[in-house]
């Protein structure tokens, strides 16, 4: 009995042991909970969004793409095991407000990084403030402003090829297949000037000639009056327009040429982003060519990742929203948001990001990146990243309008778009 | 393109601008002439007309011509009603003080613009044209609908002219413009005349917008340009003079079309603005305005 008693009645030693164990568990539990509290603090990404103003149709799709990518990212376990939040803030597609939005996202909302800007004048207006605030600023813009060296070390464009590379890789197709005397119609600000400068040079390098530049203010709503300036000997009309009036632009172009003779048309899909190509009045585009960053219509050779991405962002095989076939996406640009978010994840994990003190390490980690293979994180295709110029390079598509659909007829090679570095940001101070 | 066809296109484009401008500016001119109110929100009434036309085109089934005809009647009525409410709720309370009404209409401008942004959204939306044909000339093609706009605007303006000069309502308006207190002494309900004139001015802008929206698309920020050009037109034509406004609209519209086709649209805007400055220096009352008593 006594033995039994001993067994049930705890001795002093037992009690001490128990205490120690409980203490250990309690301590361990506490410290674990504390560690969890630190890691459960979400990473906050500020998104500078063109929700209103002339970039609104892009903004709508950038927001949807970011939200879809965020879901995939968080389902995968977030970044460094921490959940990720995105705070969207409207900049009205206005450069001055853009700088204020960067400041608000960083100072008030305490975001770890800022990303997502498309319109190049907003990038130009906001980048200096991001540099002053010492916050990584990842743009999804196509502009050559990053790789040109005009900005600062905190600004990177890892998710989309810049205009200089795009037009250089497409120029051979234009001069060899469409014609050598080119007239260019482009918006009269930074983005359009990139087209003017680099396409003109690229065409000249191919033995062709740009015989006329027609610059149109980005806020213009009526275009017929510009068309008489197109010289009669033009063989190829190269058009790139942006803003809410793009549909008017292409419609009026069709009216102007009517059933008469017209040059070959080569357009940047920007002239038609968020616009259905089978809109009334656009029948004349049949047979014409477009640059596409990412084919809007699902191509027959689309891979598994392309289909996963398309489904995640809610776009059907015709490039429109799955819930509203009239709501056409900005498919050639929005993939950059998706890809940038995953590149940010890789960089933050490489930098073992814990808080704003590690922002510089994120930029350095990104600068050390070189290659992004095609996959779920990069559905548009493989990319090479130049850490010195902070610019990514990818593959471009040239599509032809056939039976009211865009069908890819050519895909450029990676090296078609290379050009000598114009800057080495890694030598600049933070 | 040769000079002849070039000029033809420029004139055609100019006529379209002139027609739309004449309608919009005559609304502004009426409001200023009779009420002495500088309506800064005029461009937003124009925008509202276009935005409402989009709603009508979306929710009225059947051919585009039918919904367009409905929009041409319905939108000016709705916009006019809204303007009458604004007059009753805001301008009347300010006793039509010139400075106060300018500030108040700036407020109305923002309210209308942000309301459109909230309810209509930030996108530009196309409205189908009621008629879809193209005039194919040997040198270029031209949208037939643009010619319809010119004709329709001319008809509406003629109607406006007849109403103002021949009808009893026109007589009352002219009497109020001539001398507000005397009109009141003769039993004219000046408050009602003011509300009506403000509504008519807004409705004219809305009508211009419905006509032009199949060409340009509806967008919540589209009110800026019509406002600026209407002011230029009204100042050059002479504040409150309808005849002056019409002539100035044609001159400015054609100049705009020709200068912007041959040179650049920005230059056209510069020329028009300089012309205003010149008129203000040389002939402050405008081409057809009367000097203040």
UniProtKB/TrEMBL annotation, chain A:
One of its GO terms (biological process) is amino acid transport. It comes from the Bacteria. The keyword Signal applies. Residues 42-402 form the Leucine-binding protein domain. Keywords: Amino-acid transport, Signal, Transport. Pfam families: Peripla_BP_6 (PF13458). Belongs to the leucine-binding protein family. This is Amino acid/amide ABC transporter substrate-binding protein (HAAT family). It comes from Albidovulum inexpectatum.
From TrEMBL, chain B:
The keyword Membrane applies. GO terms for cellular component: plasma membrane. It is a multi-pass membrane protein. It is found in: Cell membrane. The keyword Cell membrane applies. Keywords: Amino-acid transport, Cell membrane, Membrane, Transmembrane, Transmembrane helix, Transport. The chain crosses the membrane at residues 6-25, 37-56, 68-90, 102-122, 142-164, 193-215, 227-254, 266-283. It holds the Pfam family BPD_transp_2. GO terms for biological process: amino acid transport. GO terms for molecular function: transmembrane transporter activity. It comes from the Bacteria. Belongs to the binding-protein-dependent transport system permease family. LivHM subfamily. PANTHER family: AMINO ACID ABC TRANSPORTER PERMEASE PROTEIN, BRANCHED-CHAIN AMINO ACID TRANSPORT SYSTEM PERMEASE PROTEIN LIVH. This is Amino acid/amide ABC transporter membrane protein 1 (HAAT family).
